[in-house]
Design a protein that fits this description.
The complex is a heterodimer of chains A (278) and B (434).
Chain A lengths: L1 E5 L2 E3 L5 E2 L6 E2 L5 E3 L1 H17 L2 E7 L5 H10 L3 E5 L9 H18 L4 E5 L10 H9 L2 E13 L4 E8 L2 E8 L2 E5 L11 H9 L3 E3 L41 H14 L1 H12 L1
Parallel strand pairs in A: 1-6, 1-8, 6-7, 7-13, 8-12, 9-12
Antiparallel strand pairs in A: 2-5, 3-4, 9-10, 10-11
Helix pairs in contact in A: 2-5, 3-4
Chain B lengths: L3 E7 L3 H12 L4 E4 L14 E3 H5 L12 E13 L4 E7 L11 E4 L1 H14 L3 E3 L4 E6 L5 E6 L5 E9 L6 H6 L10 E10 L2 H8 L5 E9 L7 E7 L3 E9 H7 L3 H9 L5 H4 L3 E11 L10 E2 L2 E3 L15 H21 L4 H4 L1 H7 L2 H8 L3 H7 L6 H14 L6 H15 L2 H15 L1
Parallel strand pairs in B: 1-2, 1-10, 2-7, 4-12, 10-17
Antiparallel strand pairs in B: 3-6, 4-5, 4-6, 8-9, 9-10, 11-14, 11-15, 12-13, 13-14, 16-17
Classes of the chains: A alpha/beta (278), B alpha/beta (434).
Chain lengths: 278, 434
């Protein structure tokens, strides 16, 4: 089987701060990491490869230094890595990104047909969760989003059964291959590379494809192919807490004051009564 | 898939990378194992490097875009009391003309990465996020490689270079370096404070690209044997203060509180005013000096840099000794590979190289300096206080005749520190560094 995993290099958003004046991300000095959801997708693909056999190709679109995340993927067990890197790809929104990735997957599929594409649910620097579904739609593959568990893979009938998150719960569904999975963090824990694999990854060739290599339509790539415009960025105002009651000196009084304030709020009293009524 | 290497190096600091550059440059199969996510991730330094030692490894480091922050053209010394102090400084045109890059500041996170890139370009492998947990040995107890914390993590090598810095649990495990005594270690805390480039130029009276270092002793270390430094980077200042660990243990002073107080000192506060604290770090410094140097080689291994306690506390020179010892280790290994002999006897050529160089010569010269400071805490208490008192008295214009002021100053001196002990202090001080 042929598995593909898409990985994005992102700034470590747990360390990014927002400039309160310009409302933009302060990225300077912030390390780049592999999108954590994508590393779970990689683990899922590796596990599938371990059980079914086959080949795993990893794919990333980004600047030249994004090859770092592809090396990381190779160190974990990916067989081949392709970096889509070209000025023409710069400034892409989710539409243009999924277009470029799709073209690359189609090119890979010409050589070896693709069975499963694994993506993270979303990238931590954008949180849109649109690229995976975008790829599935463009390729016409079955799409399984928010996957939390791979229940079964049936290679004979080319079907897969997964558990996925839906609003208020989860569902187990089955569908035909080829497919795209976008995964949740709880699906798997990324493995730690062995030393020989890590060394191998440092020596591996990373294929670099430009717009021409994927026969991309320039109108659909990068900034030109991106209908999304960022109109405004703002940090939501910090929510002020409600009134505070100092219980250090006179706890009794504080509790009384607190209750008084709460009961004065009609909706609160209403909810309380409803709760008791049940 | 296990491969064998000629040389395995533990640690991608200045010592390890220097060794890797020289070895790989000679076509020797070299691997460096670093525990940080990237070289420099775990490294802190006040940030002054020395061109001489770097050029011996990368002669064209300027053209190769070494990430220099500022070329140091002026050095200041401050002797401070709580409320003021003395300042002495030296600047010379030579430091930006003939001798440019004699000393320069770097951010270690960036420099170490760049340096490792140079080693990679020469053919060395640099493996990160991997901790060396132990050494591999054969039946004769010769070192034949390292064990790491990764699956299938053994690496066989003909020689191992231990360049793992001062703070390494590995040393405790191997027993090659006795656990340093608290009095052989200084604990330093450092803050990087961001300021616009022009403001730094203005406050330090420099042009863009030129920088200043300030080394400070006095009451700022709250009676402990210690030192503070302020270094100029391109658009930040490194503010660092540290003291001997045994003093910290006794005084119970909290390092970060000491740093906060230092930042409010009247000589310091105006320099860092309106700056944004960007990073905060704490680290050990190897201060043991000559007496604390362990045996630097054995069958199959060499120890370089801080790991071998090669640090000159008086001149704040550590990175240069790390680089030069790394280079000597590499040169010795190249000879050993030619001979096919990795016994301690052959590798002892490394120690001979160090002994014939400034590294051991300087450490020997200053071998009593550590003990001297630890025995003379008045350097950090009474003396700066009295010194400041004297200057302040003489500079106060209040109608009191100078002769009377002088008398009062002498009286105070005699009361707090006898002339005899002052002379003894000067004498032992001189002897400890002569
Ligand atoms: C606050 C401060 C200010 C300083 N200022 C200056 C200065 O201005 N000028 C100067 O010349 N020197 C200065 N020094 C000293 C200088 O930083 C050191 O002497 C120098 O870094 C020593 O280099 P090294 O390669 O021996 O060790 P290090 O730079 O400490 O490098 C050791 C490396 O080994 C890695 N490592 C350790 N154990 C393991 C393991 N088990 N497995 C894998 N990797 C491991 C570490 O992560 C680290 O990257 C300063 C030090 C401090 C703390």
């Amino acid at each position: 089987m042929h598995f593909i995993c898409c990985i994005k290099q992102v700034p470590d958003t747990s360390k990014v701060k927002i400039d309160p004046e310009t409302n933009t991300l302060i990225r300077s000095g912030v390390e780049s990491i592999a999108n954590p959801y994508d590393m779970v997708a990689l683990e899922a693909a590796l596990t599938l490869k371990d059980t079914c056999g086959g080949k795993l190709t990893v794919l990333s679109m980004g600047p030249p230094q994004a090859e770092q995340v592809l090396r990381e993927a190779i160190s974990c067990g990916a067989d081949e890595a392709i970096l889509l890197s070209d000025r023409a790809f710069a400034g892409a929104d989710t539409l243009a990104t999924s277009y470029a990735l799709t073209r690359a997957i189609e090119k890979l599929a010409q050589k070896t047909p693709v069975d499963i594409v694994c993506c993270g649910k979303q990238a931590i620097d954008g949180d849109t969760a649109q690229v995976g579904p975008g790829i599935a739609t463009r390729l016409g593959y079955t799409q399984f989003t928010y996957v939390t568990e791979i229940k079964e893979i049936d290679t004979v009938n080319a079907r897969i059964t997964v558990k996925r998150k839906v609003e208020g719960g989860s569902e187990i569904i089955r569908g035909p291959l080829p497919c795209v999975l976008t995964v949740e963090l709880e699906l798997a824990k990324p493995r730690r590379a062995s030393l020989p694999r890590l060394i191998h990854s440092l020596k591996s060739e990373i294929g670099v494809w430009n717009a021409e290599a994927i026969h991309g339509d320039n109108q659909k790539l990068g900034l030109k192919g991106s209908p999304t415009w960022v109109k405004k960025i703002f940090s939501p105002p910090f929510k002020e807490g409600g009134p505070r009651f100092d219980a250090r000196e006179n706890p009794r009084q504080a509790v009384e004051d607190c209750l008084k304030t709460l009961l004065a709020d009609e909706t609160f009293a209403f909810h309380l009564l409803k709760q008791w009524g049940q | 898939m296990q491969e064998n290497y000629d040389v395995a190096i533990v640690g991608a600091g200045p010592a390890g990378i220097s060794a890797a550059c020289v070895l790989a440059g000679k076509g020797i199969k070299t691997i460096v194992v670093e525990r940080g996510e990237y070289p420099g991730a775990k490294n802190i330094s006040g940030g002054v490097l020395y061109g001489h030692d770097l050029a011996a490894i990368i002669p064209d480091f300027v053209e190769k875009k070494c990430p220099v922050e500022r070329n140091i053209i002026e050095s200041r010394l401050w002797f401070l009391s709580k409320s003021g102090g003395y300042s002495l400084s030296f600047r010379d045109r030579a430091f930006y003309e003939k001798q440019a890059f004699n000393a320069f500041t770097v951010g270690r996170a960036r420099f170490d990465r760049w340096f490792a890139e140079q080693a990679r370009a020469k053919g060395a492998l640099v493996v990160c996020s991997t901790v060396v947990t132990d050494l591999l040995r054969d039946s004769n107890n010769r070192v034949i490689g390292v064990t790491t914390d990764r699956p299938e993590g053994d690496l066989k090598a003909r020689v191992v270079v231990l360049a793992d810095g001062i703070n390494s649990p590995l040393a405790a495990k191997t027993g090659f370096r006795p656990e340093p005594k608290p009095s052989h270690i200084a604990l330093a805390v450092k803050e990087v404070i961001e300021l616009p480039e022009e403001i730094i130029n203005e406050r330090f009276n420099t042009e863009t690209g030129h920088g200043v270092t300030i080394e400070i002793i006095g009451e700022i270390t709250q009676g402990m044997d210690g030192i503070a430094v302020i270094y100029t980077n391109k658009n930040s200042l490194s503010v660092c203060i540290g003291a001997n660990l045994s003093d910290f243990m006794e005084s119970k002073v909290k390092p970060y509180e000491m740093l906060e107080e230092f930042k409010q000192h009247p000589l310091v506060a105006p320099l860092i005013k309106d700056g944004q604290a960007k990073e905060y770090m704490a680290h050990w410094i190897a201060e043991g000096g000559y007496e604390a140097i362990p045996q630097l080689c054995g069958d199959g291994y060499l120890i370089a840099g801080d790991s071998g306690m090669l640090f000159n506390a008086l001149h704040r020179e550590g990175s240069n000794m790390a680089m030069t010892s790394g280079r000597f280790a590499a040169e010795t290994i190249a000879e050993a590979l030619d001979k096919g002999d990795f016994s301690r006897k052959t590798l002892a050529g490394y120690v001979a190289r160090l002994q014939n160089s400034y590294v051991i010569k300087d450490l020997k010269k200053y071998r009593r300096f550590n003990a001297f400071r630890l025995q003379h805490h008045e350097l950090f208490t009474t003396l700066p206080r009295l010194g400041s008192f004297a200057a302040q008295q003489m500079l106060t214009v209040d109608g009191v005749p100078k002769k009377e002021k002088q008398k009062a100053i002498c009286k105070k001196f005699r009361k707090e520190i006898s002339w005899g002990s002052l002379i003894r202090l000067l004498w032992t001080g001189w002897r400890s560094v002569k």
